[in-house]
Amino acid sequence: MKHQTCLVVDFGGQYTQLIVRRVRELGVYSEMVPWMTAADRIRELDPHAVILSGGPASVLDDGAPTMDFSVLEDKPVLGICYGLQLMALQLGGKVEKALDREYGRRNIDHVSEGSILDGFASEQVWMSHGDQVLEAPPGFEVIAKTESCPIAGIQSGKRFGVQFHPEVTHTPRGKELLKRFLFDHAGFAGDWTSASFIEESLARIQEEVGTGRVLCAVSGGVDSSVVAALLTKALGDQVTCVFVDHGLLRKDEAKHVIEQFTDHFHPNLVAIDARDQFFGALKGVLDPEDKRKIIGAEFVRCFEAHADELKDCEFLAQGTLYPDVIESGSPTSAKIKSHHNVGGLPDWMRMKVIEPLRWLFKDEVREVGRALGLPDEMVDREPFPGPGLGVRVLGEVTPERVHMVQEADAIFREMIASHGLRQGIWQSYAALLDVKTVGVMGDERTHQSPIVLRAVASEDAMTATAVAFPFEFLEAVANRIVNEVKGVNRVFYDYTSKPPATIEME
Ligand code: XMP
Description:
Layout: E1 5-10, H1 16-25, E2 29-34, H2 38-45, E3 49-52, E4 77-80, H3 82-90, E5 94-96, E6 102-111, E7 124-129, E8 132-135, E9 141-146, E10 153-156, E11 159-162, H4 174-185, H5 194-209, E12 214-218, H6 222-235, E13 239-245, H7 253-265, E14 269-273, H8 275-282, H9 288-305, E15 315-317, H10 322-327, E16 352-354, H11 362-371, H12 376-379, H13 399-418, E17 427-432, E18 437-441, E19 444-457, E20 465-466, H14 471-484, E21 488-493
Parallel strand pairs: 1-2, 1-3, 3-4, 4-11, 12-13, 12-15, 13-14, 15-16, 19-21
Antiparallel strand pairs: 5-8, 6-7, 6-9, 9-10, 10-11, 17-19, 18-19, 19-20
């Protein structure tokens, strides 16, 4: 990125991503780097300012996460929670080990006039920490305290530290603190917008690809559509869009995507019917990670098998997003699933991958899509996983089992729309469980499969809550599904939030 960057060093805190989001909301480009590689990244990127995140460890423990502070010498720095404690310790202050954790809302009861927290006296802040700073480092002023935390904020020149979390909504004026840090002290311009992202991306794509050819895999979803639009703008007919019908799409979706692309958007589209290939490769496979990897590999096989039609593309463009990158396992976060467009590409693939959206969150991608003039219908589409219904058909993926999900899913979504319940839903879908239950239909015993319905509200897919539909609505959906979908005799609704569950079932 050519833009001035605010780098957020991740010490493993649960809110680190939120810091990045808040900073970006203020028009400043921000990215996250794990603490182990932070110093190298700072030397390489030369960010304009650095924020040190919170984290679950104690700075006083052997082997606690740390970093080389010499790289921060002339930079504006804001330490948050663990970041504050680490800064205090590294610069010659003292930190005391806590017996108990302090967790929850607190009020600031004193701030220093003229400090970065000026005017925050008696403001509510969110605390979540064990250790705390006992003595500020030489040259630092203590700028805030609360009843239980005598050193809740420190500052010296362009270095600041707060014990509370400004990035969470439970600190109502937290964003103002970030704003003061970024604009008054670090001197950012706040000009990172969709338009500037597009401008930079076009230049970067042209530089990376040169006169090469790019295969852009499209699914009809917002991410790949935005990638296709960006690439087409940057490279014109050096781009060939390829749509693979793997048989794992929603009911009638393949037809719809092909129509939408060829009629309204990108005429240079190759549509591949690979349903038999995918079902063949998935035969007998039960493990969710195996399924994802197989689906990823079959995609690439498909592209490579069509190399003639694809005029020997050297580059493969994908709509990978920042949460996919983070969730596919950075050194500080556990690997949850291999999202096929990050973790699942096989080693033998010869095309080079380009991922123009890998630094963006979903809502930012939608903004970019709008700025590129994509129709609302495309931009506002629900996210749909790359492995498609492969991760919503638990157990073996067969054409018959996929068909059951497609039918149940179509009923559920059609009823959500006809009851005016779409508002506030991030994703909604039906899935098929890998068990059978007993039922009775027309005096006959049945032994059939249950469908699970899931609908969630979310801001960025990192966390999610189940949608509270009226009971009568769910009952009516269940009735229609068991009556109309052959092989289904029971319907469940999934109430679980993420965490502890994930949005998809596998
Ligand atoms: P989970 O299930 O991890 O999903 O809570 C988070 C978001 O990512 C989508 N998802 C995927 N998208 N390839 C994708 O392109 C994948 O393998 C994949 N797995 C999950 C999911 O639909 C949700 O929006």
